Amino acid sequence: MSMKYIYVWLSFFVLLSCTNKVSQSDLSKINGYWEIEKVVFVDGTEKQYGMNETFDYFQIKANVGFRKKVMPQLDGRFMVNNQSEQVKISFENGTAFLNYSTPYAKWKEELLTLSKDEMVLVNAAKNKYYYKKTGPINITNYGKTTK
């Protein structure tokens, strides 16, 4: 075998190993608070988010749960309302999808990447939403842990 042939196969396996397919065992990582960092639109333009007034809170068990918008407060608590979106996770051809439903609409997003710190969702318009894992903000208790 020539070196060129070996190099091509080695490159192929490196690229293949870099794909971040989400598996069933990864899904527990979605639970908790997520803050949007940026959106990359289908035309390549980006919208960066600085400080967010709301976080997305996910609670999923056995591929079923909900997503709720929450507003972090400076004392470590969250302001919430009764609005939430039901979520069912499905797999189609090895790809994970979040299937949302409310009394008013149904839609789905592809779960492109999911780790303990990062999540990327792709909507029907092919826009990519980049999230980072976050938690309570507590600046009033001088470093005490928030429950």
Description:
By secondary structure, the protein is mainly beta. It has one domain: Lipocalin. The protein is 10% helix and 45% strand. The chain has an eight-stranded antiparallel β-barrel with strand order 1-3-4-6-7-8-9-10. Strand 8 and strand 9 form a beta hairpin. The chain is globular. The protein starts with a helix and ends in a 13-residue tail after the last strand.
Write a short abstract of this structure:
With 147 residues, this protein is mainly beta. Helix content is 10%, strand content 45%.
**Record field, number of beta strands:** 10
Rg result: 19 Å
Order of helices and strands: HEEEEEEEEEE
Oligomer: single chain
Structural class: mainly beta
Question: What overall form do the CA principal axes indicate?
Answer: globular
Strand content: 35-45%
SSE blueprint and pairings:
Layout: H1 3-17, E1 32-40, E2 46-48, E3 55-61, E4 64-72, E5 78-79, E6 85-92, E7 95-101, E8 106-114, E9 118-122, E10 128-134
Antiparallel strand pairs: 1-2, 1-3, 1-10, 3-4, 4-5, 4-6, 6-7, 7-8, 8-9, 9-10
List keywords for this structure.
10 strands, globular, mainly beta, Lipocalin, eight-stranded antiparallel beta barrel, 1 helix, 147 residues
